[in-house]
Design a protein that fits this description.
The protein is an alpha+beta fold and 66 residues long. It has a domain of 32 residues. The chain contains 3 helices and 3 strands. It has a 3-stranded antiparallel β-sheet with strand order 1-2-3. A hairpin with a 5-residue loop joins strand 1 and strand 2. It starts with 7 loop residues before the first helix and ends in a 5-residue tail after the last helix.
Length: 66
């Protein structure tokens, strides 16, 4: 049986925390920042947790973890 391939796009976008959660960068924090409030920009700078409903897709994309 050949080795399973890791989806490199996912491995570059996601990081694993010490507790086993997977985090991703939030969308919308790169440009057109003048119309966004300071609170919103601060929140966009933080990482978001990957939802439990997406975990099956993530495990298929990263068969050996990170």
């Amino acid at each position: 049986m050949p080795k399973m391939k890791t989806r490199k796009c996912v491995s570059k976008r996601v990081k694993k925390t010490g507790t086993g959660k997977y985090m991703h960068a939030r969308a919308g924090g790169r440009h057109i920042l003048t119309k966004k409030s300071a609170k919103r920009k601060r929140r966009l700078g933080q990482d978001g947790e990957i939802k439990k409903t997406e975990m099956n897709r993530l495990k298929a994309a990263l068969p050996y973890g990170l």
